[in-house]
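Example record for the data management plan.
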Amino acid sequence: MNFSDVVIILWVFSFFSFSEGILRQSKRWQRILNLFETGVVTVVTWRANSDIKGEIKVLTKFFGYMGFATFIFFVFSLWLKSGSLQSVFGIVFLFSFFSWFSFKWTFEHLKQLKDYYPMFLLLTLAPWLLFLFDLIEPRAHFLEIFKPIFEMSGIAWGSPFKIATIVSLIFLGFFLLNYFFTWIIFAPFPIFILACLWISSRIANYLRSKFNREVVMDISIFIQLMAPIYLYFAGR
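Corresponding structural encoding:
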């Protein structure tokens, strides 16, 4: 969609306000105008009174249910051996799952981190537990299991304390890197949706508090006059 498309849409919508007096002379167009005004008022009122936190929860559940449903349809399409259905349901499922996880990660972050705590603590503390076991029983050489990591990375093999420290830092760095890239990948989409919900709510509140038919008429006249001029020169 380019700017000319936006101008045409504004031109069409402003026509109803600009030609209201003429259109209301027809009972059929009067019903259309009433329906249009009712729809606009309903949308503005809905966004002005919106509960953004509640809407985020609804969207999270919606993407979760849609992902579950499309996964079932995707499995069913495999049974039908329909390539077109597999593509459609596969794409919708991936989008739904991505959206659901993105919303859960961004807006229910603490709950998501609870699932990572046990693994994070286990891998980070495991080298030190093995270090203690080696102190208790030096002949066991539990830390030897990490020797391939040192050989692949080219790090010199050293004392048990050095080995435990390096391995623990490697695991810590892995988790921090994974945590950082998870935010980069999954956070932009839900933050964009949140921004759209917040901006639409603010605009709706402004329109409801500042609504004035004279201002609307002035804007409609301006659009009706300038839109065809702009489209004429844009098309040359």
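Summary line stored alongside the record: The longest helix spans residues 52-80.
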